[in-house]
Amino acid sequence: MTKKENSQRSTIKIKLNGKERPFEEKTVVHDWQAASEETSAASSEEMLEEEEFEWILPDEEETEIPEFKINHHTESKKRPYFHRVGNGPFKWGIKKLVVSFVLAITVGLLLGTFVLEIMKKEDIQATTTARNPVAAADKPGEEKENANASYKAKLPAMSVPVLQAGVYSSNENAESAAKELANQNYATTILEMDGKYSLFIGVAGNLQEAKSWEKNVKESGLADVWAKELSIGEGSIQLASKEQAEQFLKEINYYNSIAAEAVKVEMGGNVNEKVLQAGLQLIDSQKDATYQNKEAVNLHEKLQTAVESLEKSSGNQDEILKVQQALLDYMTIYYQLSSQSS
Fold it and tell me: How does residue 34 score in pLDDT terms, banded at 50, 70 and 90?
């Protein structure tokens, strides 16, 4: 150890468990000037080496060579690919074919059964008709029920305010009087009641309107006329369904409303547009579903004629006459149905 190092050595005393233990720390002093010179010399040598080295740069970047795998497949021709049964589109094709086949069989069986049932019913009906032929006129006055009618509809009792123009002992006398009234532009109908023949020239909405109309007619020169209420009892009619029966009942209930408007027009008044439109809608709702029963068809047509003529009746005497004639015809058919049921 040199003198210089001795001078730079420092001593630290440490006590451990009450005993002093010397500790020396050697301080190294570097010669920075000498170190700088050595570093410069080394840098100069490296620069010389760099100048002497020839750099060769590659033209293209090296690409990674993929791993080589041995292919054991030696055939050169590509084999066609076949789907196995139960896999891929072939599976769905089989399923669709099976489902279509089953559906076709099912539909065929159902159609065949349906056709057979229809043929059986037709055979039964033909056999029944052949064994039990129906005579058209065996019982005069008996109502013929339509083959399509399957619902028996009830006809409610009606009280119709009317204007009567005489009672006759024979139909011939009644028809003769009716012709004379028709020539005077009156609507007419004849009903047989209790062995006599009553002649009527119009209907009204209520008895008070009928009496007002009676007074007006008498002032016009027809003395033998009076207002009264004609009572019509309950009846029945065969219709195709309950829905038709409900529609038919609406038409019956509308009868009094249009009769009231008809009298109003007869006496120079104006038609209530709400009542008229209600009638037109009622008739229009039935245009796609006609009745099968002959009497029901007649009643519907008479009511339709009355409504359509009432729409054209403003200032037109011919249309006013058509309204009353249609309402009288409706009343006559209804009365006959009631009489047949009683």
Answer: low
CB 310 within 8 A of CB 258: yes
Tell me the torsion sign for CA atoms 279, 187, 294, 151. positive
- Please state, in angstroms and rounded to a whole number, the distance separating the CA atoms of residues 47 and 35: 19
Rg, the chain, Cα only: 59
Query: Cβ distance 222 to 202 under 8 Å?
Result: no
End-to-end CA distance of the chain: 157
Q: What is the dihedral of CA 327, 328, 334, 340, to 10 degrees?
A: -170
Token pair of 108, please?
A: 């065929």
pTM of this prediction?
A: 0.57
Distance (Å, whole) CA 313 – CA 279: 15
- b/e map of 150-168 (b: 16 or more CB within 10 Å)? eeebebeebebbbbbbbeb
CB 269 within 8 A of CB 303: no
| pLDDT per residue as tens digits for the range 94-149 | 777 777 777 888 888 887 787 777 776 666 565 545 444 433 334 444 444 444 55
Do residues 285 and 295 touch, judged by C-beta distance below 8 A? no
Our measurement of the distance from residue 263's CA atom to the centroid of its chain's CA atoms, rounded to an integer in Å, reads: 41
